[in-house]
Amino acid sequence: MIFNPAALLQPDRGQPARLIHVVHPDQWESWLKAQPPRIRTTVAAHRLTGKAGNRAVLPGDGPDDWAMLLVCNESLDSPWRIASLGEQLPEGTYRLAEGEPGAAMLGWALAQHKFDRYRGDEGVTGARVLLTGEPARIEETVRLAQAVASVRDLVNTAAADLGPAELEGEAEALAKTHGASVTVTKGDALIKGYPMIHAVGQAAAKGREPRLIELEWGNPAHPRIAIIGKGVCFDSGGLDIKPSSGMRLMKKDMGGAAHALALAGLVMAARLPVRLHLLIPAVENSIAGNAFRPGDVLRTRKGLTVENTNTDAEGRLVLGDAITRAAEEAPALILDFATLTGAARVALGPDLPATFANDDALAEALLAAGTTVSDPLWRMPLWDGYDDMLSSDIADMVNAPDGGFAGAVTAALFLRRFVPEGTPWAHFDTFAWRPSAKPGRPKGGEALGLRAAWAMLKARYPG
């Protein structure tokens, strides 16, 4: 089923629609007292107490007339306030009985997004349309819904169907839509200019060769921003092979690339006054006779050498070369997204992207934006005291320190070595996955940090 959020959100011109009553638990008693006897009788029959999550179908004046009641303690600016109804109500047209849906339009639309690439027709239902008296908000909401859905779809796609070539195809499609240009450096052509990208991906099968995908868009006179996404399309762990349980979800190791593609699409669709440089190092970390080895010393585009202490710490390697390439164009801002470390998940769980920044103002803007749009981030420290953990006896640094302490921090410190001094940079160590479903947010691939980054960019570069 093609996801079309524009068909799910419509301006309210007084057309027929069923009402949705959304009542906060604090207003339950006053709301109930104001209702006619038939509503109070229905509420009593359902034994509703005004607890968050209570819901019921309320009778109307005629036999086919009804409305929906939802008791909800979510704030008025939460995208997920009525998402459960967007997923569960019968097809039809709805409006809120009190107030406007506002931010909740996003959750309403995303609740109707389904990843069904590998499923047959399971009784597809019609659309649930939400009316709004704020039509100016629809276009932005539709773009956001499409961006989030694109992340989910890419992350959910099996690795057999989404390799480096398919990520290249996604970038090409974006470029065609928005009039951008794409440059791809692939296979053995990476050896000289992008040796770490080549080393990580060199064992992949024919047709899944490593590559650096670059997209450029916008007026060169505008501030240049670089958006980078880790595109490890499947991660076996390499010769430091993962156990089967650790490999199970490694189709999602390109989640950073999915975020970067979606964010680039938002930038171009809104025509922000920036010169966009999107970079995706796309590889498969495979095992073969030519796989890179523990103990190998890798050259980098920057000229540093890296003693490879763990082939399963490959994401930071490909990002290092990509960040170096981005830095060569003197960007005003660098953002990178990566499903980088299990340590970040141990520290913060699945919902909070570990966010690192070398600029306090940038970090504060990101955290504030995340709070505003209900896409929370959590800042982690670029602790200089741990920098010597990256020391090597034979090279400029290692990629993965021994001991496992501060794994997310040392990974970010590794990346920082490729960022030019004075260039604002933020790194999102995001999970890109939801292990259990919530209203409007199914189990599976998820955009975590995308909307926060987008809100920050809109404020930083207003059109």
Automatic annotation (TrEMBL):
Domain Cytosol aminopeptidase: 310-317
GO function term, MF aspect, one: aminopeptidase activity
Keywords of this entry: Aminopeptidase, Hydrolase, Manganese, Protease
Pfam family, one: Peptidase_M17_N_1
Gene3D superfamilies membership: Leucine Aminopeptidase, subunit E, domain 1, Zn peptidases
SUPFAM superfamilies found in the cross-reference section: Zn-dependent exopeptidases
InterPro entries reported in the protein's UniProt record: Leucine_aapep/pepB (IPR011356), Macro_dom-like (IPR043472), Peptidase_M17_C (IPR000819), Peptidase_M17_N_1 (IPR048816)
PROSITE patterns tied to this protein: CYTOSOL_AP (PS00631)
Family indicated by similarity: Belongs to the peptidase M17 family.
Protein name as it appears in the record: Leucyl aminopeptidase family protein
Organism of this sequence: Sphingomonas echinoides
Upper lineage: Bacteria, Pseudomonadati, Pseudomonadota, Alphaproteobacteria, Sphingomonadales
